Amino acid sequence: MSRLVVVSNRLADPRKTASGGLAVALGQALQASGGLWFGWSGKVVEDGTPGEGDVHLQTAGPVQLATVDLSREDHDSYYLGYSNGVLWPVFHYRLDLADFDAGFIGGYRRVNQMFAHKLAALLRPDDVIWVHDYHLIPLAAELRNMGCQQRMGFFLHIPLPPPLILAAVPEHEWLMRSLFAYDLVGFQSEADVAHFSRYVGTETSADILGEHEFRAFGKTLQVQAFPIGIDVDEFTALGRGQEAIDMYEQMRDEYSRRRLLLGVERMDYSKGLPQRIKAFRQLLQNYPENLGSATLIQIAAPSRESVDAYAALRQELESLCGSVNGDFGELDWMPVRYIHRSVARKRLPGLYRAASVALVTPLRDGMNLVAKEFIAAQDPEDPGVLVLSRFAGAAEQMRDALLVNPYDTTRTAETMQRALQMPLEERQRRHRALLQQIREQDVHWWRQRFLNALNAV
Ligand code: ADP
Ligand code: G6P
């Protein structure tokens, strides 16, 4: 059996709790198959030389970890600058937030080259290499330049925007050509695959050989949607743990006379947080029976704080939460509980379970695993209701959620009210269907389908 080599910028850090969807899912997928996990150590060396970094080797169960430090300059240009200041906003349709500073691309190329060099030294001829996310699009091209002939697949965890948005990135042609160094490219949703196909059709002279097959730059590439899932059994087991039970009981006792609405994410402008608070304000305004009762717990974990757009979002969110509390709060009731921290993963299922309604309302999201975790954590006899943005990748699969357009504040408020009022029978029926869906297409299904497709190329 060939060894699986997974490459991603972020690895799961057991000391931290909110690592984002990619690290959570990959940690679970790798536990199942074993292999090598290669990526950034999370460490920044202040006076390090650009393009250089020490490699650290560690073993974690069946997984070998190989991580590389980044110099300050590389971190700021490759990670903060190009990955999170250009690719992240553009791929989430936010051209207004992109900083096309010409200096960033140099760091992005340099780190991809450095990763390729360090990784190549660890590779075996029959390894299967699976590269993840927007930080590492050109990695296969760099490995191929060095003569690596292994099977290579790429999975994009974030959306791929339509061609005319993508074309705003000055290096879009180079990025898209780099994808053809892989044997298989996977996206989260059919919408992303359609955007890829349209891009190739309009911006390149590639041949579209079939729905999933493209030929350009002397290479044939398979492209397909592989919607990522969660480990439902693991998450359900977590929910039976003492920490989750304690959390649930604590919330139930503290909010016994209230109805809880819950939002959990990284503090990111793609998550639609200001729009959500505005819709919650309308819920209180338009449906006064919720006054003194409906409480929104909003957990927004710190993320990428040295990127300007993130700092600005934090200020906006704090001001919106403050004004809702000021306008509607009572001595014994605060409508919004805003917490700028992460929740320990072991307690998370208890929090989800205590909520009557989950608000997963991103403006754009590759998938969104919180939506799936919320469903996995519910009591099937008395489940909470999922309000889900139609712009999350998860909306293609989770048709039994209450789907909303998060830009439409009035309708979102209306849907929050509908969720709070939903009869038990309808809640059970929707939850049953959603649970079945996330069970059928879980993280193991995702990994197996991707690897089967890669091995079949
Ligand atoms: P993203 O990958 O954009 O961060 P996802 O919803 O796909 O969004 O994945 C987020 C993952 O990180 C989930 O597993 C979720 O439980 C975890 N997470 C996100 N925010 C928090 C938080 N505030 N506290 C604890 N865990 C969090
Ligand atoms: C999203 C991205 C991941 C990233 C995660 C957390 O899930 O798709 O690649 O790891 O957010 O962001 P961070 O910048 O902390 O790695």
UniProtKB/TrEMBL annotation:
Its EC number is 2.4.1.15. It catalyses: D-glucose 6-phosphate + UDP-alpha-D-glucose = alpha,alpha-trehalose 6-phosphate + UDP + H(+). The keyword S-adenosyl-L-methionine does not apply. InterPro entries: Glyco_trans_20 (IPR001830), Trehalose_OtsA (IPR012766). Keywords: Glycosyltransferase, Transferase. GO terms for molecular function: alpha,alpha-trehalose-phosphate synthase (UDP-forming) activity. The keyword Transferase applies. Pathway: Glycan biosynthesis; trehalose biosynthesis. It holds the Pfam family Glyco_transf_20. One of its GO terms (biological process) is trehalose biosynthetic process. Probably involved in the osmoprotection via the biosynthesis of trehalose. Catalyzes the transfer of glucose from UDP-alpha-D-glucose (UDP-Glc) to D-glucose 6-phosphate (Glc-6-P) to form trehalose-6-phosphate. Acts with retention of the anomeric configuration of the UDP-sugar donor. Homotetramer. This is Trehalose-6-phosphate synthase.
